[in-house]
Amino acid sequence: MKQLKVYIENSVIGGYFDAVFEVATKRLFEKFRNGEYLAVISTHTYGELSNGAPENVKTNLETISYEKIDVTETMLSLTQKYMNEKIVSEPYRSDALHISIATISDVDVLVSWNFKHIVNLNKIKLFNSVNLKEGYNLLEIRTPLELI
Questions:
Q1: How far apart are CA 31 and CA 94, in angstroms?
Q2: Exposure of 66 by Cβ count < 10 A (0-12 exposed, 13-18 middle, 19+ buried)?
Q3: What is the side-by-side order of every strand in the sheet holding 4-8?
């Protein structure tokens, strides 16, 4: 069976220590640890973690193996196309960048606990409409609970 490539962003990494999200997030991390899933992390995620994430969140990331993805000009360009379509407003460009990274990296699924800008059916449809127009595949976006 093919190992599932799962892009995780900061809400999932921090969700490990959040009472509302910890059960599903810990089960997801266990799937990373036992090799059932491969975590995919971007340099963008690292940057966000560096800007004030608690130390336990940063060190928890080091308990799993993961593939690290560098942000490219192509990813930034796709992010701008999302912004041009006003899928999210400028303060949430970071969320759109996660979508473009996952799309261009051709992961199997992006997981998030961000219900406002990422795991939101209307937003998913809008992001994917741009992806299709630009020649990319549809991006599966789920919560950790849906994935496990």
A1: 26
A2: middle
A3: 66-69, 37-42, 4-8, 109-111, 141-142
Place of tokens 């892009």: 7
* Rg of the chain in Å (alpha carbons): 14
**Cα–Cα distance, 39 to 77 (Å, whole number):** 24
Going by C-alpha positions, the residue among 65, 66, 49, 62 that lies closest to residue 10 is 49
Cβ proximity of 106 and 100 under 8 Å: no
Q: For the chain, 148 residues long, give each residue's pLDDT as a single digit of tens.
A: 689 999 999 999 999 999 999 999 999 999 999 999 999 999 999 999 888 888 888 888 889 999 999 999 999 999 999 999 999 999 999 999 999 999 999 999 999 999 999 999 999 999 999 999 999 999 999 999 999 9
Nearest in space to 141 (alpha carbons), one of 8, 36, 33: 8
